[in-house]
From TrEMBL:
<dbReference type="InterPro" id="IPR036856">
    <property type="entry name" value="Ald_Oxase/Xan_DH_a/b_sf"/>
</dbReference>
<dbReference type="Pfam" id="PF02738">
    <property type="entry name" value="MoCoBD_1"/>
</dbReference>
<dbReference type="InterPro" id="IPR046867">
    <property type="entry name" value="AldOxase/xan_DH_MoCoBD2"/>
</dbReference>
<dbReference type="InterPro" id="IPR008274">
    <property type="entry name" value="AldOxase/xan_DH_MoCoBD1"/>
</dbReference>
<dbReference type="InterPro" id="IPR006311">
    <property type="entry name" value="TAT_signal"/>
</dbReference>
<dbReference type="InterPro" id="IPR052516">
    <property type="entry name" value="N-heterocyclic_Hydroxylase"/>
</dbReference>
<feature type="domain" description="Aldehyde oxidase/xanthine dehydrogenase a/b hammerhead">
    <location>
        <begin position="226"/>
        <end position="304"/>
    </location>
</feature>
<dbReference type="InterPro" id="IPR012368">
    <property type="entry name" value="OxRdtase_Mopterin-bd_su_IorB"/>
</dbReference>
<dbReference type="Pfam" id="PF20256">
    <property type="entry name" value="MoCoBD_2"/>
</dbReference>
<protein>
    <submittedName>
        <fullName>Molybdopterin-dependent oxidoreductase</fullName>
    </submittedName>
</protein>
<dbReference type="GO" id="GO:0016491">
    <property type="term" value="F:oxidoreductase activity"/>
</dbReference>
<dbReference type="InterPro" id="IPR037165">
    <property type="entry name" value="AldOxase/xan_DH_Mopterin-bd_sf"/>
</dbReference>
<dbReference type="InterPro" id="IPR000674">
    <property type="entry name" value="Ald_Oxase/Xan_DH_a/b"/>
</dbReference>
Length: 728
């Protein structure tokens, strides 16, 4: 895998070298073969403008020896986009996958962006499990357009009608049996004047797929296995200097450095760079920078987080929940108040979750080199990209975006944290001071924990109203916490047929940095919803599967995942003594239902998950083996966060600092088995990276309720909390 995407030399363009397309894909012929370019406008003048504005880039390149390079516009952080997106292109192009190599595309959203996140605005954004869904039509149409040009060029070369040609395995085939490989066709490639638009009917039917849905090894795994894969943290440039920041663990506090002269006199220290919330140290080596950082004598000011205690705030949240005035209404169907007023029975419960840290494997880091004249910059970073594909660097440096070249690298974990570009902006600020030296900014693990950006702490108050037949007629969900979508997403019940529903959010702000964490608000809110359903079933002496089956009657795809997981988990089958099963349903793009089997050590309070079963409907399955890997990883990360992980804040300061006091799930605690069944519903692909994680808490808590008759309502389920519940 090369660091730098191929850039073709600038050249003149004739009318035959670009075309208009309703799909937004402009194909043109370049010196080394077929080039396909996604342009943000469909008019001729607009295409010319884009070609003048950007270096010549491509979706695909074909060489005369038949080698094919397909560009991947998404970040690769272990989720498989380096394979799934090029695979879609190759499928429609009828490319020989064994001759395909994949590289990151340039970070140019006008060319490589998708409208899958925000209609009317092209973004390169690897978040929300929407990458495959967002690029599914883009990559397929581009591949089909490339295939059309190959067929058309072969037909012109042979002097035969286009209708007499077909393609397979990187060859164009004539009805007579004559063939020509894509590589041999390169010298004859031309774009027809009457190039048609590619419609849905021009794309392959699912039953004709030869790559999609099959077992295809991921393209980047060999390099990750042999150690040759390059992450940003691996990059070393000539004369590179190193920067670290002391941010403190009181979010937003301003620093006053008391020993500047002493630090500047230390061996290797080149410069001190003040920030509103930190002191930066630049040195010749990382060791020298870290050594100087330890010697900083900083007086910290107050901040909005001063005095905040995370474990005491729940009492305040309960008072907010008790207030008569509703918060911001996020979803309302019917009237939950009317349902409650005539209910035969009502159940109310509060559910809580503490802050959670991302704990991505690779520490945050970036490298930026500003040119000596300050008018251009090169950036090397592992990023989940964002609304600004140049990651905020142009604004900080005061230069045009086209003068910033971002070299995207593999990410050693993201989970939402690397869609926040604070670490890149910090590096840019320092690199501006150190130009033309390349600056490598490193966050230590302690930096990332103490000055982290966490999944929000929250309290959810749920109320379920039942009629005299035991049907749930009303369901209200009040979310209290900071962060808007970060805290309130996932509280809707679109697949449960409940006639009266209300979801509201009541804000409470504490000055703590927050960020998307895998599945965002679903982790806390689906936990509350699924536990509430089981508590209703428990009180009504009803099987929780039977309750969900009734609620899902009008949602056949959701119901199918429930029925399949009931089957594979042998839900009603015999169990070993001291064990129980729990069920939980989640919708996060994909639809999934999970069942887990647990036991509890009543002396220590430790919960052990023995088995987990999942049935998931993700629409068209592009990479089945990778989907299963995503589900397994999601379950394990969910277990870690639900059983172990907890950020606590006292007097505004984060109490944890590293893995010794922020424990992750250990190998010995992984389930004996995780079984996933994929239900292919022939719908457009949905994300799978965030489907499994939110189902874990509900499934474990529901199994615990079945096993002990007691309720777990506060994540994480630490042994201390479990013991307190067992002994209550």
């Amino acid at each position: 895998m090369k660091n730098d995407p191929k850039i073709l030399p600038e050249r003149g363009f004739t009318r035959r070298e670009f075309l208009k397309s309703s799909g937004g894909v402009a194909l043109f012929i370049g010196a080394s073969g077929l080039m396909s370019q996604l342009i943000s406008c469909s008019d001729t003048e607009g295409i010319k403008e884009q070609l003048e504005k950007h270096p010549i880039t491509a979706w695909v390149q074909i060489t005369e020896d038949g080698e094919i390079t397909i560009y991947n516009p998404a970040a690769e952080m272990g989720q498989g986009s380096m394979t799934s997106l090029p695979l879609l292109f190759a499928e429609e192009m009828d490319a020989d996958w064994s001759r395909v190599r994949v590289e990151f595309s340039p970070q140019e959203s006008d060319i490589y962006g998708s409208e899958g996140w925000a209609p009317g605005s092209k973004l390169m954004f690897t978040v929300g499990s929407r990458t495959t869904k967002a690029y599914y039509p883009v990559m397929r149409k581009a591949g089909a357009q490339a295939r059309y040009i190959l067929r058309s060029s072969a037909a012109d070369h042979w002097g035969v009608p286009l209708a007499e040609t077909s393609t397979k395995n990187s060859e164009v085939i004539h009805t007579s049996g004559k063939k020509i490989s894509y590589g041999d066709l390169v010298p004859y490639l031309t774009v027809p004047e009457d190039m048609p638009d590619i419609s849905e009917n021009d794309l392959k039917k699912q039953e004709d797929f030869e790559l999609v849905g099959k077992y295809i090894p991921r393209t980047e795994l060999p390099s990750k296995t042999d150690g040759s894969a390059q992450f940003a943290i691996d990059i070393i440039l000539p004369n590179m200097v190193y920067a670290v920041l002391e941010r403190g663990n009181l979010h937003g506090a301003s620093p006053t450095l008391l020993n500047e002269a002493e630090i500047l006199a230390m061996d290797g220290v080149l410069k001190l760079v003040p920030f509103d919330y930190a002191i930066g140290v630049v040195a010749k080596s990382l060791e020298q920078a870290l050594s100087a950082k330890k010697q900083l004598n900083i007086k910290w000011g107050d901040s909005p987080a001063s005095g905040f205690n995370s474990q005491e705030v729940y009492a305040t949240y309960e008072k907010i929940a008790n207030q008569a005035d509703k918060g911001r209404i996020l979803n309302e169907i019917g009237s939950v108040d009317n349902a409650a007023s005539i209910a035969a029975k009502s159940y109310t419960a509060d559910f809580k979750n503490d802050y959670v840290y991302h704990a991505q494997m690779e520490p945050l880091n970036a490298i930026i080199q500003v040119a000596e004249d300050g008018q251009s910059a090169e950036v090397w970073v592992g990023s989940q990209q964002g609304p600004d594909t140049k990651l905020g660097v142009p604004d900080i440096l005061g230069i045009p975006p086209e003068k910033v070249n971002v070299h995207l690298q593999y990410l050693g974990g993201g989970f939402g944290r690397r869609s926040m570009n604070d670490f890149v902006e910090e590096c840019a600020f320092i690199a501006k001071e150190m130009a033309p030296l390349a600056v490598k900014l490193m966050w230590t693990r302690e930096d990332d924990v103490g000055y982290g950006a966490f999944r929000p702490l929250s309290l959810q108050r749920l109320r379920a109203s039942l009629d005299n037949q035991g049907n749930i007629t009303g369901f209200s969900h009040c979310v209290i916490g900071d962060g808007g979508h970060l805290v309130a997403s996932g509280a809707r019940n679109d697949h449960y047929n409940i006639p009266n529903q209300l979801v509201e959010w009541r804000s409470a702000t504490h000055g703590v940095r927050l960020k998307h964490w895998r599945a965002v608000g679903h982790g806390a809110n689906k936990f509350a919803i699924e536990c509430m359903l089981d508590e209703v079933a428990f009180q009504q002496n009803m099987d929780p599967v039977a309750l969900r089956r009734k609620l899902m009657a009008n949602s056949p795809r959701a119901l199918a995942t429930l029925e399949k997981v009931v089957e594979i988990s042998n839900w009603n089958g015999p169990l070993k003594e001291g064990r129980a099963k729990g069920v939980s349903f989640v919708e996060h793009g994909s639809l999934g239902t999970g069942v887990c089997e647990i036991s509890v050590d009543r002396k220590t309070g430790k919960i052990r998950v023995h088995h987990f079963w999942i049935a998931v409907d993700a629409g068209v399955i592009v990479q089945p083996d990778n989907v299963k890997a995503q589900m397994e990883g999601g379950i394990i990360m969910g277990m870690s966060s639900v059983l172990n992980e907890q950020i606590t804040i006292k007097d505004g300061r984060v109490e944890q600092s590293n893995y010794h006091n922020y424990p992750l799930l250990r190998m010995q605690d992984v389930p004996d088995s995780i079984e996933t069944v994929l239900i292919d519903s022939n719908e457009i692909p949905e994300g799978v990276g965030e489907t499994a994680t939110p189902m874990v808490a509900g499934a474990i808590a529901n199994a615990f309720l079945k096993l002990t008759g007691k309720r777990l309502r506060h994540i994480p389920f630490t042994p201390e909390r479990v013991l307190a519940i067992l002994n209550s």
